[in-house]
Every structure is written in C-alpha cells, then in structure tokens.
Amino acid sequence: MSALTSMPPAPLAVPADVAIALTGVEKRYGTHRALAGIDLAVGRGERIVICGPSGSGKSTLIRCINGLERHDGGRIVVNGIELTSEDGTVQDVRQEVGMVFQHFNLFPHLNALENCMLAPRLNRGLSRAQAETLAMKHLERVHLADHVRKYPGRLSGGQQQRVAIARALCMEPRILLFDEPTSALDPEWSTRCSASWRNWRRAV
Ligand SMILES: Nc1ncnc2c1ncn2[C@@H]1O[C@H](COP(=O)(O)OP(=O)(O)OP(=O)(O)O)[C@@H](O)[C@H]1O
Ligand SMILES: [Mg+2]
Q1: On the chain, which terminus has fewer CB atoms closer than 10 Å, C or N?
Q2: Best mutation site among 60, 62, 70, 72 for ligand 1, i.e. most ligand atoms within 8 A of its Cβ?
Q3: Using an 8 Å Cβ cutoff, are 182 and 190 in contact?
Q4: pTM value?
C-alpha cells in the first residue's frame, strides 16, 4: 500500500451547531444490510424521534452512534469526535453520550442504587458519597426511592426501565440516546419520564 492510500481521510466538516452527523452510514450483519446509506444531522438541543417497523435498524443505528457497534461504511461524528478504528475514539464519544437500552441492560449483580452509581464513579471520578447523592436524586425523580436496594430481578419491568433512565441521567451526558425508553412504562410514567428529560435538556 502506498503512503498516499494509507493516509486518513480529511476531517468531516460538521457545523458547530450539529451534535450528531452521519453520512452514508452502512452496517451489515453477514449478508444482511441493516443500515444502508444513512444520512442524519441532529442539532444541539434538538430532540428527534426515529420511527420504523421492527427490524428496520433503529437500535442498530443508535448502537453505532455510541460505538457499541462498529459501522462498516460512511462516517459518524458525535459532538465533534469522529468514530474511527483509532484507539480511544469510542471512549471519547461515550463520555458525551448516555443511553437507555431497549432491554434496559441493568447489571443483575448490582442493586438499583449501585447500577446508578457505577458509571459516575468509574468515568466521572465521583466519590462514593457524591455518586450516591447523585444517584438518589435521579432515582427519587423516577419515584424509586423505596426500591434502591433491590436487585433488577426483584423489580418490575417498568421499575427496571426507570432505573435505566435514572442511570443514564446520572452521567449528565451532553447527548442522550433512548431506545424505546418507555416501552415498559404505563401512560402516566411515560408522560412523567418525557417531562423529566425535557427538563434535563433545559439544564444542559
Ligand atoms: N448482532 C446481530 N447479528 C445479526 N443480525 C442482527 C444483529 N443485530 C441486529 N440484527 C439484525 O439487523 C436488523 C435490524 O435490527 P434492529 O435491532 O436494529 O431493529 P429495530 O428497528 O431496533 O427493531 P425493533 O423495533 O424490533 O427493536 C434486524 O434484521 C436484525 O435481525
Ligand atoms: Mg430496537
């Protein structure tokens, strides 16, 4: 390979007011093309909803945006950081991005409080006391103060989903990705949680 062909591509020009930019993003699983030439620009402070039938690639798309899946083609820039195969870019992006997973993905061996404290302690360097105060604040906001010592297996589906929402908010990320975040919630909680992340947006 010549020196010329091994040069990295020029940085993608992304306007300063764009938080997430995708151009021509491709993702394949074997022969299945889950994402085909996706272009997307999400502005700072903007909230967007991606709708589509089951299996159309919604989860795949947001998993690519926080680097949980490696895209096979096209380019993804998150808060000015391009996701590439270079070491460290995924970690850099994850500092900026919180995610509520479709299937919650709580750590089964940690109780609700510990699930919320873990990332702020590991990634933000908070002390145990600071992380606990923060976690309690967000767990109280989703009315789980009485359940903080319970392990996920002893929480209802809706309670687990609220822990997952509190856990994402505890990282106070600049960008939040929600994958069907109210699927296990009743209409009342669905409305309350939507209000909660509207407030979060105002706070950043
Ligand atoms: N790890 C994987 N290995 C192989 N195929 C996968 C994998 N993850 C997803 N797929 C396939 O990619 C396609 C898109 O899946 P994805 O989970 O992104 O869909 P979705 O739009 O989120 O669906 P749903 O609304 O049911 O959650 C599906 O056909 C799925 O079977
Ligand atoms: Mg999905």
Answers
A1: N
A2: 60
A3: yes
A4: 0.86
